[in-house]
Amino acid sequence: MMLRPFLFVLVAAASLGLAGCAAGSQLQTFPKSSLVIRTAQGPRHFDIEVAETEAQMEQGLMYRRRLAPDAGMLFDYQKPSMAMMWMKNTLIPLDMLFVGEEGRIVNIHTNAVPESLDIIRAHAPVRAVIELNGGAAALFGIKPGDEVVYPIFGNAR
What we know:
Layout: H1 3-24, E1 32-39, E2 42-51, H2 54-59, E3 71-81, E4 84-85, E5 94-99, E6 105-112, E7 120-121, E8 126-133, H3 136-140, E9 147-149
Parallel strand pairs: 2-3
Antiparallel strand pairs: 1-2, 1-9, 3-8, 4-7, 5-6, 5-8
């Protein structure tokens, strides 16, 4: 009988602690844009959010419970780097497209596991990473070598 009130207090305290953590950290907002990925099956259009600052890149798509089928996030590293990503606090599976300086997809990591701390790496220096819903690369026929059309790659007309 005494166990039930104790469990209620314990659960309530844990809930308040989690809420406090989320409220204590400032969630980032992101500029919105769009891009096109030219695939063998034709162009694919995506509405994206752009992560440019360190704080935006650290947060990324964390805490999201859903992502529209044609939505994603672009992480702009400003210059070529050996990008590394993880899925900490990311609640949905994601495909990660690692994009070289000229806008060509270098490699794709499909269906990254939600909340995994495993490091996901670019196979070569990349200018950006694009995160899409898990399975989107297969659904839309996106493959390494496809071109991402976006201003940072100098190929947007």
